């Protein structure tokens, strides 16, 4: 079975602070993919990033960065210099070739509030 | 380009009544998903279609839920009869492919309240 755990239910920061959202996953598959999605108050989930299990290179995209560590089964997401518009629920998700095809297994989400 | 369109956005019904949700995926996307998102939780897959075929419906409560995707485009999800525990947001998503690395595009969802 696959499982994604986001231990942080809610995080509140002040604008311009850096914030890291944690994600830990479990899977028996050797080939899998990890995702981060953002869900603003409007409701739709917006794709942010995808990583495959063979690519542990960390990535930076503007104010966003991701840290994938296979040894600890973690895929953490950092927002640098947070802004009020970053306020949303962030979901980490997993899909695996053998087990589930393109079905996403989501964590329970982290509500991020950025205060002015 | 239009995204995934769902209707209605909100629905309030009494328990034991039927309800239906409609989804129009992004043009050209052959894979369509219905997810259910309970309050404070992540979405969970109910059913996945590849064109007109339901290829993953293992988590669809088939005693009261049904879905169809005629002509491999629009889809309808139905609940009959609805129960209080069905209150949730029902999200539709679509993607170009079926591989695990496929990016799924989500609609805004239908928020169902059963009273």
How would you characterize this protein structure?
The complex is a heterodimer of chains A (116) and B (115). Chain A has 116 residues and is mainly beta. Chain A contains one helix and twelve strands, in the order E-E-E-E-E-E-E-E-E-E-H-E-E. The longest helix of chain A is centred in the C-terminal third of the chain and has 4 residues. Chain B is mainly beta and 115 residues long. Chain B has no helices and eleven strands. The radius of gyration of chain B is 13 Å and the shape is globular. The N and C termini of chain B lie far apart (37 Å). The interface between A and B is medium-sized, with 27 and 32 residues.
| Percentage of residues in helical conformation of chain B | under 10%
Give me the oligomer status.
Answer: heterodimer
Structural class from helices and strands of chain B? mainly beta
Q: Treating each run of at least 4 consecutive H or I residues as one helix, how many helices of chain A? A: 1
Kindly state the mean pLDDT of chain A as a whole number? 92
The main β sheet of chain A shows up as: 6 strands, mixed
The biggest sheet of chain B, with number of strands, parallel, antiparallel or mixed sense and barrel status, is:
7 strands, mixed
Q: Assess the beta-strand content of chain B as a share of residues.
A: over 45%
In percent terms, what proportion of residues of chain A is strand?
over 45%
Order of helices and strands of chain A: EEEEEEEEEEHEE
- Helix/sheet category of chain A: mainly beta
Query: Biggest interface between protein chains, with counts per chain?
Result: A-B, 27 and 32 residues
> Over all CA atoms, what is the radius of gyration of chain A?
14 Å
List low-pLDDT spans of chain B. none
Terminal CA distance of chain A = 41 Å
Q: Got a strand count of chain B?
A: 11
Name the helix and strand elements of chain B from N-terminus to C-terminus, one letter apiece.
EEEEEEEEEEE
**Contiguous runs where pLDDT drops below 50 for at least 5 residues of chain A:** none
Helix tally of chain B?
Answer: 0
Q: What is the C-alpha radius of gyration of chain B, as a whole number of Å?
A: 13 Å
Averaged pLDDT of chain B: 94
């Amino acid at each position: 079975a696959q499982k994604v755990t986001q231990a942080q239910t809610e995080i509140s920061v002040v604008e311009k602070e850096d914030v890291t959202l944690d994600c830990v996953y479990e899977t028996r598959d050797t080939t899998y993919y990890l995702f981060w999605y953002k869900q603003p108050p409007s409701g739709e989930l917006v794709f942010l990033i995808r990583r495959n299990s063979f690519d542990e290179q960390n990535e930076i995209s503007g104010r966003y960065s991701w840290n994938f560590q296979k040894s600890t089964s973690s895929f953490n997401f950092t927002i640098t210099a947070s802004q009020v518009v970053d306020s949303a629920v962030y979901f980490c998700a997993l899909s695996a070739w053998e087990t589930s095809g393109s079905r996403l297994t989501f964590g329970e989400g982290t509500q991020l509030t950025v205060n002015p | 380009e239009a995204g995934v369109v769902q209707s209605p956005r909100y629905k309030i019904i009494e328990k034991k009544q039927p309800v239906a949700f409609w989804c129009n995926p992004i043009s050209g996307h052959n894979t369509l998903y219905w997810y259910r998102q309970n309050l404070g939780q992540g979405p969970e897959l109910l059913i996945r279609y590849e064109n007109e075929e339901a290829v993953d419906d293992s988590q669809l409560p088939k005693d009261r839920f049904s879905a169809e995707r005629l002509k491999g485009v629009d889809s309808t999800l139905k609940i009959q009869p609805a129960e209080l525990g069905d209150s949730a947001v029902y999200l539709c998503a679509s993607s170009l492919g079926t591989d695990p690395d496929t990016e799924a595009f989500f609609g805004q969802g239908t928020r169902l309240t059963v009273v």
